Amino acid sequence: VLSLTVISVNRYYSVHNPLNARSFFTQKRILSTILVVWLLSSGICMPLIFMNKRDEIGVVEGLPLVFSICREIWPQERLKQAYNFLLFCALYCLPVLFNMVICFLTVRRLWSRSRQLKESSALTRSLPASRLKIRRKVAQMVVALVLLFAISWLPVYLMDIWIDFNIPKSLQDVTPSPWILQLRPFAQWLGLTNSSLNPICYCFVGNLYRSAKE
User: Fold this and answer.
1) Which residues are paired to 68 by β-bridges?
2) In contact, 41 and 51? CB cutoff 8 Å
3) Where are the domains of the chain?
4) Which residue, of 34, 107, 153, 196, has the greatest Cβ tally within 10 A?
5) Which residue range or ranges hold the G-protein coupled receptors family 1 profile domain (predicted)?
């Protein structure tokens, strides 16, 4: 999520100031940014290292067949609620809000340039019309990527918050509703599918960006 946010900043800067983009995003700055992203991600998820405990669940009642799982065991219910709400804000709400702002600025920049190019082409009759279409496609795909991320990850975060704020008084008696057990894996799969498709989508958008800047 944080990596996608950094990529959005890179895309916006490349559109807003294409001549200085290569000199600004040097190898040293890129490596430093990657290091900061990894440190922030590790720091946010650090509590899970200590709160996850090994547990065993039976597959069929009456049979000695069990599976080992990792389960979050928190000393206080409020700590678990506060931490997962923090995850929701830090890894979903803030990145989505930030990406929407970047998306709006990028789209506005692309469309303003399209209008300028259209006006100049009316005078000189030398600018190919295909370049204007490419810029519009870039603007549309930027919006689509932000919406795809927001829609894909929202279900799993909402389900986790619902579980956290409806957990039993006894943390040892964790019995989620059956529909949560059935839908939670699908929600997780939806979010991970978005992550797996992001490299392909951003690779395609990157080609459009390069064409739009020419």
Assistant:
1) 56
2) no
3) 2-213
4) 153
5) 1-202
The whole-model pTM stands at 0.73
Helix (H, G, I), strand (E, B) or coil at 3: helix
CATH architecture, range 2-213: Up-down Bundle (1.20)
Helix axes 27-51, 2-16, angle to 10 degrees: 160
Phi, psi (deg, nearest 5) at residue 56: -125, 140
pLDDT tens digits for 50-74? 988 887 776 666 667 777 778 888 8
Length of the chain: 214
Closest Cα partner for 161 from 47, 94, 82? Answer: 82
Cα 175 → chain centroid? 30
Which has the closest alpha carbon to 132: 143, 122, 145?
122
Cβ proximity of 71 and 53 under 8 Å: yes
Which residues in the chain come in under a pLDDT of 50? 123-127, 169-171
Answer whether 10's CB lies under 8 Å from 100's CB: no
